């Protein structure tokens, strides 16, 4: 009851016209940042913090939060329309989203993504209201061994993502791992695979890699087939998803919300892990899993719901424990501190009104984004009516600008181009790109948690099976890997049954 | 006709030559006097993850630096390898004042001392601009831990060496050195677990009870103690920390250990004098700003300003001290 009163108080504070305007501006800026390939939420929020410094604490945090999850909505748009991820968490959406665009269902894909984002974001915020404290503590149960075990689940989804050839998927996964190891060894500090180049000490920029591998290689491969990237300009009717689409999306959104929310509670997880795992889950559990990769609506609904649920749930460890759970949240935390607010349990005791106003604004922001995005779907999809040659030139320009602005370095532009060529080669060899992205994201997290776990156990690998949570997770991973084998047997058994 | 042409050509040539000279002559002085150029932003490289004490301090001084220098100042995080990634980036930047960095000891002092780390910088690659803070090391246990006093804990670690895990924020960081100093003076040996992403990650693991002992700085445990989530057993400083008045120092408990991290700001070596002066002055203003100092105090950090020159001397002294315990923190496997 007290919580409800405080939340209502929060709504009163968040719904002043100034704060509504801040939320609106934040949503708009966030969407634009998301749309531009290369500029992700971390850079976006960091770049815009100076804008908000002179506002009062509530207004500035409301605006930054809106920018933050606005990018999660916006990133989808370029993924779906142009097969170029606007930001990392939407990378996986390119697969089915763009396939849907080719089928003339771009509008439906974008609407579903917006609805999914709204559902994921809103449910995660409800979670923050209802059970912030116990949930925050739950995240702490995930120590290095459990974190590693979670990564095992993720990598085992490689198998789920494999598509036609498991060998090719593994090659792709291994490539991603290799690329993720470039740079200074995070523990011992020795340079690896840098070929003596100082530029590579930081590793290769993840965003430059995915923009290259997905976006540039797409454009290059079209050029070769002399096809146009924009296949159909959708009619107005196709803007709305069909009833069948909505029905099929619902379970995917439910799974996406669960995955995103759960991972959001775990310090160190990122939105891209959430969307990748959600895609893997769809590939594994969806009733239409065989259509995935060919324009299945689940492939958009799941990941897009998951990354927004993650974004909002990731605020829980920040609000309740003062732990920034992801890079973007850490930048947000910096903004809190600059406003004289220390995130953590004291936030609710010392600055209760501000805390609740921010939470209320999360609901408002998610609603604003839904209202903003669905009507704008028509506007965004009209991009496809731009003549293909002009569109290609514009996309290339945005990709170069995006790659350059990651670190303001020309080197990243060359990285992007290099990986574009690699992506083109992989496409020709029919090697799937998704496993590479997955290992690229998970590789460093996996290495880190493995080394930490072994330091805790002083070299004993038993730590992964002696602890209940990690044992359960590892078992799930093994089951996922083995499940195709089990399925192979099942039809045989069915065929044998009638004969006996 | 021809004469006019020649004259015109001559005039044009001399004009070009003059502008050329002017531009060249200007360049040297502009670099110093017009620093910083309007619209060109200054980067503060933070070699640790966002959210930690180094990052927070940099983000607190940033707005005042912006005001003092009249241009954009951006905090850029380059975490990893106990600071080595960020420091490499800092020292390989152009010494033009547009890239400065937060430098923390012991990380910045130590990595060049250990050849196995392959650091591309030495102490002389940095130009210290000012010290901001000294943050003493502390040792803490879970609130429900059986160890009530520092003596209890150290005795247990002496009886069963390496039986208790203790967090650090990476190999050869302040926490790791503090642990080595404890081992050298008292014989109590913990099993270090290195959380290379920094203090927030180490604290998370401690809160989740994945490590037994939290070795951290006063600023890291300030909030935890208030919430009753950690029991600090000792502060490694000569006098009690104002942020933790009830916690005895190591000295009071009979152990002669002093350790902690020291943070300041540096540029890549070779800064033009005028640029260095401007940056130093702006930093002093920002560090000593009462609002910044108050916010630092709220975080449990004691502002302790030293000028660039004094900071440099201090740095050299630290280098001598760390050389002594270095073998204890070098990776043997």
Q: How many beta-strand segments of chain B?
A: 10
Secondary-structure class of chain B = alpha/beta
* Distance linking N and C termini of chain B: 85 Å
Q: Tell me the number of helical segments of chain B per DSSP (H or I, 4 or more residues long).
A: 11
The major β-sheet of chain B equals: 10 strands, mixed
Q: Detail the poorly predicted runs of chain B.
A: 15-30
Rg of chain B from C-alpha positions? 24 Å
> Which whole number gives the mean pLDDT of chain A?
80
Q: What is the SS-derived class of chain A?
A: mainly alpha
Can you tell me about this structure?
- By secondary structure, chain A is mostly helical.
- Chain A contains 21 helices and two strands.
- In chain A, α4 packs antiparallel against α14 (327-338), α5 (93-102) crosses α12 and α10 packs across α11 (271-285).
- Chain B is built from eleven helices and ten strands.
- In chain B, strands 1, 2, 3, 4, 5, 6, 7, 8, 9 and 10 form a ten-stranded mixed β-sheet that branches.
- Chain B is globular.
- Chains A and B meet through β1, α14 and α19 of A and α2, β2, α3, β6 and α7 of B.
Keywords:
heterodimer, A: 500 residues, mainly alpha, 2 strands, 75% helix, disordered C terminus, B: 333 residues, alpha/beta, 10-stranded mixed β-sheet, 45% helix
